[in-house]
Amino acid sequence: MSELANDTLQDGPATTSSETEARWDWNDIVWRSVQPVFVMGTMLLVATMVTYEWMNHELFAAIMIVIPIPLVIFAERIWTKRKDWLLEPKEMTEDAGWLAFGALLWVPLYSDYYETPISEGFKAVRDLAPLQISIEPTSVVGLLGGAMAVMLVSSFVYYWLHRVQHESLFWWRIHATHHHITKMGCMRGDRTHPLEWATLMLGTPVALALLGASDEVMAVVGAYAIWTGIFNHSNLPIKTTPIYDWVFATAPQHHAHHAFERRQADSNYGCTIILWDRIFGTYCGDDKVGQIGAGKCVPLSIKDQLALAFYSNDRLKKL
Predict the structure, then answer these.
(1) Are the C-beta atoms of residues 197 and 110 closer than 8 Å to each other?
(2) Beta bridge partner(s), residue 248
(3) d(CA 282, CA 200)
(4) What is the spatial distance between Cα 12 and Cα 207, in angstroms, rounded to a whole number?
């Protein structure tokens, strides 16, 4: 529960213990519901839009990209999980730069369906193999099911690539940029080293090539990925939701992954699907985390963030 919520309860008119308990229960329900409602609701909306063609696709894509982050930034200022995570204008400007860098350069390379050299390469491999799968549903239920299949396959690849980056100092150097953030915020998901885009994002073209997913399926997957990534890095008092958080990653799980404490940081490698962590024994269900960050837990300059991948082991350990 946010500090603001606590203040509201303390400063308001006198209430009975049953009334106070009811207000706490209501807040608890809300913050357990926010992420699944937005994520699953948006997936259903996209699947419906694609099936019945009731909205211009380009306009809807623009709305999906433009609205979520400003909306969550605004929410973070009202329903703040931790005041020490509130970003200064300089930090927000830097995050916006990373976000633009990822959106304009790296994301299109990996997520533009099959129209990239990388995904075309994997598709060629699939065509040579005996595995001939094509996921091209035309119904709402089919699109949601196809999206789930793609997410499970791509997140399986992502899980192991991500885990190796934590277990090997050599590979950690290209992932360290993302873990050297000292605060959580909805724009921080794209603070990712360019070389990391070339590794962790491999799961998407692999899944696309192996499963032959249609553009419509990938539109539903995109809706899930956008909202999940934003919520998981947000400074909102989101809580885990029973059943949902057995399969789908939630903000508390990912906050633990960004903790300074190694036991927490070396867990919850699934940033979108948490199921593989549960299966392979790397799940952490801690509700609270202490300091966020890595190394000395101090913000790094842009130069250091980009040069981390090329530093010696000794220098890497001293940051």
Answers:
(1) yes
(2) 273
(3) 18
(4) 52
| Residue of 187, 181, 183, 184 lying closest to 71 (CA atoms) | 187
Tokens (6 digits) for 53: 């063609």
Angle (nearest 5°) at CA 24 between 20 and 28: 170
Contact 274, 247 (CB under 8 A): yes
pTM metric for this prediction: 0.84
Q: 182-232 pLDDT, tens per residue? A: 999 999 988 888 888 777 666 666 776 677 778 788 888 888 988 999 999
Half-sphere exposure of residue 263: CA atoms within 13 angstroms, side-chain side: 6
Q: Give the whole-angstrom CA distance, residue 149 versus residue 309.
A: 33
State the first-to-last Cα distance of the chain, in angstroms, to the nearest integer.
Answer: 33
Owner of token pair 């250091």: 304
Residue 16 backbone zone (phi > 0: left; psi -120 to 50: alpha; other: beta): beta
Cα dihedral sign, 171-177-182-185? negative
**pLDDT greater than 50 at residue 9:** no
Tell me, what DSSP letter sits at residue 53?
A: T
CA distance to 48, 101, 167, 223, per residue, from 257 (Å): 34, 24, 14, 23
Per DSSP, the three-state class of 138 is coil
The Cα–Cα gap between 117 and 314 comes to: 37
